[in-house]
Amino acid sequence: MLAWLRAGMELAERFDGFLGSGWVRPAPGSTEWHMLYRFADADSLAAWDSSDQRRWWLSSAEGFVEEARSEKRTGIEGWFDEPSSVDVSDLRTPPPPPPRWKQMISIFIVFLPLSIIGNEIGSIYASSWPLPLRVLATVCVMTPIMTYVLLPWITRVLSGWLHAPPRRERR
Q: What CATH architecture applies to the domain 2-87?
């Protein structure tokens, strides 16, 4: 089983946009396992999902593995998730989520300049709008920019710092 798991991870690694993968079980001793993949964008994930390599890999386990459902997540909901299940092997165990204060600083670094720019543009082009409408328009523009562009970028840039062990563990 572990050889089959590794093969799937190694196949996925060859695809553009691959960011990581892992296997987890909902509880110790469970016969149910979950494959987790991270890709940079929906197109990269779609390329893996529809690939001949993935089909071959899944068919090689016919009879003892079944694909029950698939769930796709986008945006921020999975960035800083705490592990919600038990790791089943030492296969590239993902690092624990960064401390909340580091998450806050990462968001602040991109939110402050984007807010300043958004408010400045709003004051120039929508100064006559009522405040709630101006704020709504600004938030509707800023949210996708934060979610799809700036937060993924800043988490890549700060990855080493976000996942660095606390000072007391480094000694």
A: 2-Layer Sandwich (3.30)
